[in-house]
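As noted in the main text, all predictions were made from sequence alone. Below is one such record, for E1-E2 ATPase family protein.
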Amino acid sequence: MIKCQTSEAEYLRVVSQDDQITLVKIESKTMKLNNKPLQCYLIFNYRLYTYYYDSTQDCFLPIQFALSQLTNQQIYQQYGLGISSDQKYQELISIYGQNNTEIPEKPTMKIFIDEVLSPFYIFQVFSIIIWILLPYYYYSAILFTISALQCIFTLIETKNNNKKLREMSFFETQVFVYRGVSQYIKLDGGYVIDRKISNYKQKISSLNLVPGDLIEIPDGQILPCDVILMNGTSVMNESMLTGESIPVIKSALPFSSNQYHPNEDGKQSTLFAGTKCIETRYHLKGSIPILGLVSSTSFNTMKGQLVRSILYPKQNSFSFYVDSLKFIAVLAFISLLGFFFSIPFMIRGYNLNFLEVRDLILGSVNLVTITVPPALPTCLSIGISFAISRLKKQKIYCISPPKVNISGKVTIMCFDKTGTLTEEGLDMYGLRSVVYQGPNRVNFAKLEEDTYKLGMNKILKLNGYPEQEHLYGEGNPYSIIGDPDLILKECMASCHGITRVKGELIGDPLEVKMFEATEWELIEQNLSFYSELVLAVVKSKKMDISEQYKTSQPLNQMNQTQIKLGIVKRFEFSSKLQRMSTIVKNLDFNTDFYKLYVKGSPEKIFELSKPSSIPQNFNEILDFYARKGFRVLAFGVKILKMNQHQIQKLERDEIENNLTFAGLLIMENKLKPITKSIIEDLQDANVRTIMVTGDNALTAISVGRQCKILDEKNRVYFGDLSDDPAQKGKIVWRDFENSQKHLKEDDLQPENGLIKYQDNQIPEIQEEIAIIQYAQKLESVDRRISMMQQNQRKKTDSINQPLVSLQSSKIYRERAKTQINEQEDKQTKDQTIIKVEINTQKKLNKMSEISQASESNCSTYSEDLDTNQKIQEEQAIAALNDDINDFIPWNNSQDGYTLAITGRAFSKIISQSTQSDEKAQLLRTMLLKTQIFARMRPEEKSLLLQQLQDLPWKPTCGMCGDGANDCGALKTADMGISLSEAEASIAAPFTSKIQDISCVVELLREGRAALVTSFSCFKFMALYSMIQFFTTIILYTVNTLPGDMQFLYWDLFTVFPLALLMGHTEASQKLSKQVPGSNLISFPVLCSVIGMTILNAGFQVIMFLILRAQSWYISVYDTHIYLNDLDDPSNRKNCYESTVLFLFVNFQYISTCIAFSIGKPFKKEFYTNLFFSVSLGLIVSLSLYVLLLHDSFTTDFFSIFEEVKLDDQEPISEMPYVFLLIILAVACVNSAINIAYEKYVVVKLAVAYKSRKDKKRNPALLDPQQKIKS
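Prediction:
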């Protein structure tokens, strides 16, 4: 093909972002696109998108319904009337095609070529053919059977996965569409629909929908496309896209001049494909349909993008497979050199009539099959199969075996939040109202865990007189609102946006939990009974409040009554303002005022409240809860002396000020019990942990604090796009707990330094600190007991022994509180705490004794090693990982703060990163310092994984999620694991039926063990080939070969079982700090393989020379001249040379295998592998038997040649028994040197090489602030 202009081209060469090259055919099509005149466009299809050539921009753009360029008002005006005619529909269907998300079925032959055929398997077929011609049937048949079964299983698995993906992607349903109804819709300052429109609805297949269609949104409908809601409201379940099971309320697109952005402001009015409409609401519902405008169809929808991300994930950069091909190419080149070396000897043999032409050809080709082991892919894949089998016992299932090795390289682990790190919803931790103790003397009240009791406090007695406490100052005539506890409770009951759907409370889970804790009732029906202006009513349970309030009413009228609050106006939550508010009126008392309740971030309520109402130690107490990972909200209240008309005209800016601070609500995220300990284990192993969630940033940050993804010692700066019109599009970084502190936008460094956290030595929280600390120790004890019990269970294979299960933090605190309160002595609080800690330490000491008594069960932790030995081992391991940058850049930049960011700010930084080196460096700094990514859409999660993978040192990244909206990220990640009840999920290569993140540690352990096994097996197979190659070359010099049964013994009974069973060694129980190397073309690997090859080849030559120096030695040619059997080519294999090398080389295979079986700290010791140890013992025993005690059967079977003699004559030459001992002695020396070389010499050389390399390392890789070098 010839490169040409776009207008002349027939094909395009498309290069994807991950450098995948595809050749696509260009077509021409006449169409009206984006309201332009009819014209001819060049188009092509690529990865389920259709692209057209835009001559004005000189580039190809995807064909999309361009609504993002319009304002909301323009959308109503241009498309709000729907499709006017059938002709218009035909134009649109020709442009956008059917609304079909069916994935084209992949032919079986294509799957076979892409997934099954590889250079390894093709070479296997070639080798099997050569061996059959030699003939060498037994091994050929076994290898062919195993390889064929592997190909069949791979083919079946791939077809099943493709089928599941097609079923998940395709969706068709019946919908009601409205076409040609423009006369029944008016755009008069709004969207007005005539009742008669219902007579013109048509029922069609969702496949026939096009952008611009108006469809009805009924209750229970699963959306087949992306839709803009035109009227009414809709409660939607978006869990398929966002992963959050909490329904969201969508409202009609505002009739305004704001620009439509489907992923920003317009998201509130956009219903996405694949989401479910739970309920629609409209004041004329039943007579007028709820309508939506189709905005995207087919693979242009959000769901379509998710499917595309699964189908076309970015290829990982794991180099093991490519390196193995390069390595094998080197081995093939060595075989070529061996062939040229042996040519003169073969020609000599041919001239002596010792060889035939067929022998020359097959012998030279056989050198290739010897040098390049055809059994290599089989051995490597079966080793991975052992790891998959062990994972299956842990209820972790794998559908992509190559990913097992890749998981061993993971150094960055990303987690979804909901369903992965946390359970659904939150828990109430407690409330802190305020205590008024005089003018400008306000303190926090004691933590109240029982919300129902709030507001039941007795009247305080100040100065010996009973007096109602007043929060609002002297002269307040409304003593009924004077109790701060009741005010806080009323805030919780009324300041929210929750609603009821089919009797169930729906809304933000925090608000739902907050409201449920009050035990009040939400009423949304028959509101006209109260007032036409009331949006909702909340009322308390009946309670006795006669002792609570002074009132002019008789006490008997106040007893057993309810508080009823009518919500008359609501200002929705704004992330920009960090608050929401409601205006309420007490419906049981004829008051002439309203109350404004405001709920928001503590620092925002602090800013809006009167200083005289702010409790002392506000910042210290807030810091304490924030650092412990609690979600904290603050409340404020204000009296509004206005009438109904004034209230309805109010704007929030007019009244949300000069508040009276009312208290704090402390919520606790429901972490899964194992989450915190697993995060700590990963961090101890130098695996970076990141949270990637679709949830809001406040919840994400508090969860990050609680589960230790965020260090409680570090400040958190939160980045988001500014909502300020003056700074539109600018990313603002604010301190999470102090919005006045910012980061510099250009380098993400703090302005004017960091704020240090306040000391926790304040009276109000000392009791809580004691309880939390003791609860943590109780949890630690349970964790250690559980760990030892699990080890014991694995040791004894017992499934009947009950395990100590980890519990929630709340339960541990309750246990701690109970035990502290049950202390029998009456010491002071501090003394009690000391005693509790002593008792806890005693328990820990007792556990330590149990641990020592059960040392055999915990031996995998290597606690018996002293510190120096551990340091030496770690240095050695680091040296062997020459191919990776074993520094940890995110640990080198611990400057006392970390970052959190929203999806839209993240996308903004990505889009700007190509503008300059400074912007690229900003992106890299952000990636290194950010631990929380919130409000991330599915495609942004995938993009994050790609960006992390593209960092200069190419880290291997993992992702763990629930498999719903995380599909793309799970596929993009180098290692994706889905938490699902199914045994296999198309969303990820790994699926865990255990619904917590403990599977991650298990997978990393097994992955590292499998990767080390693959390297060991590869090196062993390479050495096996080299040993056999040099044996063959040495024998070629005397025109002979090893016997067929000798080859069979080496291949089938020595190397094959050892190579297979190497992978059966279990992974180390503890996740190590080091990561195994993954580069075969690296100094340690080359040093190991080349050095071991030279050693073994040298000892073979030494053994061969020792043989030829013996007085009884007779060459193979002279031997068969004497025996007069040269007419049979197979007889030349019976000679001293082949026998001696066979007996000697047996031990080289064994010692090489042992040398390469050293797996610490990633695997247990090889002798713990029972099958391998038994196999090794049998092979050693058999080799010794064949060498020293062989009988007539083994002599004949293995063609052992001990003497030269004719049938009835005395031997003219005989191998003495002492020479067999010499063979054994040389083999022992060779074995000892092999093992010592691999264990010590290679490590020393690697350390020296690494030290030298570190001095030359690019400093930009070490310091994220260094400028990236192009």
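The first helix runs from residue 72 to 79. The chain has a mean pLDDT of 79. These features were considered when defining construct boundaries for the mutagenesis experiments described in Section 2.9.
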